């Protein structure tokens, strides 16, 4: 059996409860003004190896510190997450509240506090209404279900317009190993405070340190390649739980099974990254910046991010304007060695810039590219043979509306 | 007599023709669809020391290369500039055209081509219509006048909503020394391709190398502190001509006169920087990010730029939302050592964040600050005693409109 990665409707429904032994729930605890679900719970009765990557922002939210300690123990049984309040910039009270979320969850599930990962997303600077959170966690614990992934996925959303989830299957040592993922993106436009939460479950049996290494490497090539840069928010977090229920030969070294597992994890996380970018706040276009011919991955990523973060590029694509001048300009100031004469730019496969000047193009064909929803901007630096893809979206009136509205 | 720096209406009118011996003109050559003035000329019959700073973008426009060579000769007689076409990404033809602009100007004024600085701003990737440019330069040469500064100032504008100009006076060695400035900002919102052109004239007598040193240092604390970052466009250029007509004792070493001259040049350039930031594309607010308590100027600038470049901060101010969470988040990801507990944030002098949490504030007083046009965001890192100011503007629907409209 080949590995299978899916982002179909059925797959989204299965999500994090697709791997064996995982239950999930999402409930309405009243943390959001909208009344939408806002407390999510993921649980594995069988102890799971845990790994995580976290925001590098010096202003990190309380749950980030709490969850880092859980990951340091290498095992966990549950993830509790809330939306509507980030529990960031909340001082000592915020730390107490994050610890209380752990304890309440542990008590409800019959595990220890150190078995519970905590995540929050929402407004910065507000304290969690702990009475509501407590009731919400209890309700979620009662609602835990092998079909609970969609509810959990919905309960972590903020300004996302739809829930993101997927599943994957890979055969390791003759045993079917399953992976499931849910994530939220959010607003965004550039590496900023848009919080990304990403929860991955798998029934693979894998050593916790190898799990961490695989996750860290995969994140560099998936969530960290969105222009909602994972390491910038106060609350960003990606967590994977591996409970070993698949019964595969335990992955305890970097063998073929490790590589196969990492490969399918990468594909799953890249798929969810595309979905997050496409659902950026106010987005009307999904843009893939494909940089090729770079000397290093770092160079390729830097160029891709420079283009992806340019408001002038993003507004041009919103306006369906094939303004290659803004693209090559953003390449030029990226700070990576490049020769304007050797660099080429294509929109949707159509050359628009080469040899230091614009390339004549078929206006009708290019118009068809620019008026589409998914657009690939290919930049060939002709400096080496390394490539990278950065995913982003355009910049619309709606973005300004969403973020310019007074919502403290 | 004290030094005097002015940005009044009278001062704007005097501008670059305020110092002795300078003439200027601005004419309509038909380069802009709007029919607005688009060719500017500045001339000093008396040879001037020249200094300049240029874009650091790897994709630099043709006139940048041409003008760097002029500055390398240390003397010049004229500056010719056009708007409506950037002459960037125009290959060998673009270089020929920039050189032709020099030669046409030199012929019209009776100097040599190497005496003429060339600058362009406008659309990238289009060739200059040289027949129109030639007629424009001839017309401008005929129109040169001691009252020509406003015309020249208007002829370099692109999406600016008003012309920026100022004057300054300082007494050196008993002689009155005058300085004049015109500049264009442009769109823009973050270090990007928005072209800044800044032309400064002075009748000071000063050695060209010292003039360059003074200009370079001043730019670091003025134009490079706008979030329209000077070194990012394909065409950015700041040029100063010093013709010595004031008759002051020649500044040939770093004496008190040098310091006084540099001080007044700094004040003049900071004043014009504020005007450029306040006229950002679609701006409804002028924001000063005042970072204090930093360990170094570089740290203070990095923090200020991180806040100034955050679309989430900028849209919050557009919405008059005192969202300090977005500000402290941008401080946190700036990459500069900072302690969330020690950092404080004030909006218009009103504390909003301290000790790691939000500070209760008088809502009415803060509303008055947020609804004003000029807002100071003060960030105290409490790490050292260095400060820096970064100037920017908010981010509005109008920005998206201006840049999302198809205008190739």
Structure explained in plain terms:
2 copies of one chain form a homodimer. Chain A is an alpha+beta fold. The first copy, chain A, has 2 domains: 1-279, L-amino peptidase D-ALA esterase/amidase; 286-405, Ubiquitin-like (UB roll) (Roll), CATH 3.10.20.340. Helices cover 34% and strands 27% of the residues of chain A. In chain A, strands 1, 2, 3, 4, 5, 6, 7, 8 and 9 form a 9-stranded mixed sheet that branches. In chain A, helix 6 (208-220) crosses helix 7 (256-278). Chain A is globular, with a radius of gyration of 22 Å. Chain A starts with a strand and ends with a helix. Residues 188-193 of chain A have low confidence and may be disordered. At the A-B interface, helix 9, helix 10, strand 13 and helix 12 of A face helix 9, helix 10, strand 13 and helix 12 of B. Chains A, B: This is Arginine biosynthesis bifunctional protein ArgJ. Chains A, B: One of its GO terms (biological process) is ornithine biosynthetic process. Chains A, B: One of its GO terms (cellular component) is cytoplasm. Chains A, B: Substrate binds at residues 158, 184, 195, 281, 403, 408.
List keywords for this structure.
15 strands; globular; alpha+beta; 6-stranded mixed sheet; 9-stranded mixed sheet; 12 helices; homodimer; Ubiquitin-like (UB roll); 408 residues; L-amino peptidase D-ALA esterase/amidase
Main β-sheet of chain A, in a few words?
9 strands, mixed
Q: Count the helices of chain A. How many? A: 12
What is the overall pLDDT average of chain A?
A: 91
CATH topology of the largest domain in chain A: L-amino peptidase D-ALA esterase/amidase
- Element string of chain A (H = helix, E = strand): EHEEHEHEHHEEEHEHEHHHEEEHEEH
Percent helix of chain A: 25-40%
Text of the CATH class of the largest domain in chain A: Alpha Beta
Radius of gyration of chain A: 22 Å
Just name the CATH architecture of the largest domain in chain A.
4-Layer Sandwich
Low-confidence runs of at least 5 consecutive residues of chain A: 188-193
Strand content of chain A: 25-35%
Strands of chain A, total number: 15
Broad structural category of chain A: alpha+beta
Oligomeric state of the chains present here: homodimer
Name the CATH homologous superfamily of the largest domain in chain A: L-amino peptidase D-ALA esterase/amidase
Largest interface: A-B, 66 and 67 residues
From the spread of the alpha carbons, the general shape of chain A counts as globular
Q: Span between N and C termini of chain A?
A: 51 Å
Number of domains of chain A: 2
